[in-house]
């Protein structure tokens, strides 16, 4: 699979280092997940996933608490989950997941980002069939063989366990997200470098230098949009 997850996360963290954008997006995601059920991660699995992701991005406790308090209190904002699909340079594929309280704002903004940066939006299903929903859990300090042994002992099925850079990345079915984490936590793992429910492309494409620059501008433009939570693609940037 080879996504180099730690490199991707570091790039995103660096990109957002001088702004509060990443924290604001997590605030919305936590609020929405908490409003779907109880604002308690032990009884709300969707909320637990978001909070685990937030930990890997070092989201401040104050941001998390504010979103949870809003969900517990009088917060009555209604957000809609939307997915857009499209194409970048040379047939590259992109999935954009958004949370919005203004549908009439989001679609034009996403379409404009595509059009202004060498891409174009497709219809629903035009891209997503080439991606697999996947739980991605990363950790350091162990080998892939050691992690696989721990998961077998914990009776957890996974798709793959790979060593990527200095981390071990576990790829599993989405419904195994919590099972993977619990098995590893029970074995003494206290910290995860990655904890994502992602969309993994079935195949990757490489772009020439000019197309890659254009593609990165497109991804940056999409990620900069207020309503966009996640952007997935099938471009291999290499190391």
From TrEMBL:
InterPro entries linked to this entry: Integrase-like_N, TACO1_YebC-like_2nd/3rd_dom, TACO1_YebC_N, Transcrip_reg_TACO1-like, Transcrip_reg_TACO1-like_dom3, Transcrip_reg_TACO1_YeeN, YebC-like
Domain TACO1/YebC-like N-terminal: 3-73
Cellular compartments annotated: Cytoplasm
Keywords attached to this entry: Cytoplasm, DNA-binding, Transcription, Transcription regulation
Entry annotated with the keyword ATP-binding: no
Stored Gene3D superfamilies: 1.10.10.200, 3.30.70.980
Major localization listed first in the record, in broad terms: cytoplasm
Domain TACO1/YebC-like second and third: 79-235
Family: Belongs to the TACO1 family. YeeN subfamily.
Descriptive protein name: Probable transcriptional regulatory protein GCM10010917_07830
Organism taxonomic ancestry: Bacteria, Bacillati, Bacillota, Bacilli, Bacillales
């Amino acid at each position: 699979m080879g996504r180099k997850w730690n490199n991707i996360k570091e790039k995103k963290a660096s990109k957002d280092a001088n702004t509060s954008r990443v924290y604001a997006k997590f605030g919305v995601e936590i609020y929405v997940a908490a409003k779907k059920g109880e604002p308690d991660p032990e009884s709300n699995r969707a909320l637990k996933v978001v909070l685990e992701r937030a930990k890997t991005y070092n989201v401040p406790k104050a941001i998390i608490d504010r979103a949870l308090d809003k969900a517990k209190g009088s917060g009555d904002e209604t957000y809609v989950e939307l997915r857009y699909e499209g194409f970048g340079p040379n047939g590259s594929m992109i999935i954009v997941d958004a949370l919005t309280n203004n549908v009439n704002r989001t679609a034009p903004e996403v379409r404009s980002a595509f059009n202004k940066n060498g891409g174009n939006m497709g219809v629903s299903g035009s891209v997503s069939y080439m991606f697999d929903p996947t739980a991605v859990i990363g950790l350091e300090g162990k080998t892939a063989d050691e992690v696989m042994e721990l998961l077998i002992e914990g009776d957890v099925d996974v798709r793959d366990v790979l060593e990527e850079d200095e981390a071990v990345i576990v790829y599993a079915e989405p419904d195994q997200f919590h099972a993977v984490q619990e098995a590893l936590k029970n074995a003494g793992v206290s910290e995860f470098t990655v904890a994502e429910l992602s969309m993994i492309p079935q195949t990757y494409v490489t772009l020439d230098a000019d197309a890659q620059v254009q593609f990165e501008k497109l991804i940056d433009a999409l990620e900069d949009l207020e309503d966009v939570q996640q952007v997935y693609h099938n471009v291999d940037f290499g190391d």
